[in-house]
């Protein structure tokens, strides 16, 4: 089946693999002084975390301005490790276009905003310490079109958000298969979804995790479906400035500690008991009862205990923000533990 072309008269731009349409990457900057970030955070008394202005399940403010989501939990985990206080963090929403400049300028300490780790970004004076969510680019379509595979979008019109990797992914995928399409781009997700709902395009393409939330915003969610097929790899990772290995290690091992805690059976609802009993060597090392692992990071011995007590392990956070008990109901999939068929793997704390 081929999708019928949209009505004539719409202002549609032909899809081109134009790198210039993507948000510009900052030029390589001089490395920051070694081990400066943690000291600055401690002196300030709180962490400054850059997050998305609003992606369901990842970073969303409520009516009282309190942020929730998987990325938000990660920032709170960092604050818990440093201050023993998950509230010692200030969230600054960042657009796709401004996020890297905010990091490089020092406006934020860490960028935790559904950002894909790529080579060009990794070599633009940024480091991506750990992959916190494995995603892929997908498509939201109307059920009435009876589309089940991406290749059926040949000659379709697709809505996209500017300043992301989605445009190049589309160009690569369709060109490789000899298919054609038209694209309409917009400045933000609200405009993109509005155009899709109004019928300006046949499909809305972005990260599959985001599409779960976008689908719920439509007037009739049951009229739309997310195709199962992904056309790209989108490893989401927090970003930090290059030149501060200590801060990079802290950000990486905060995620790994949440994974290791989950694998060891240490959760938010049992961490106090596990701390008292600490029957296995793994549990003792994770909770700071054996070794000097926290001190090696510039933190206290109980840094991981603080994280789990205040925020939980990775599975706790996933279930609370994205899992079956939430409206999103995103499958764990690639984000399951390595021994459960997924890719999440915490190096050992030892």
UniProtKB/TrEMBL annotation:
InterPro entries per the UniProt record, alphabetical: Bact_solute-bind_prot3, SBP_3_CS, Solute-binding_3/MltF_N
Source organism superkingdom: Bacteria
Domain Solute-binding protein family 3/N-terminal: 46-274
Transmembrane segments: none
Gene3D superfamilies assigned to the protein according to its UniProt record, in alphabetical order: Periplasmic binding protein-like II
Signal peptide range in chain numbering: 1-29
Keywords carried by this UniProt record: Signal, Transport
A Pfam short name: SBP_bac_3
Record-stated family: Belongs to the bacterial solute-binding protein 3 family.
The name this protein goes by in its record: Amino acid ABC transporter substrate-binding protein
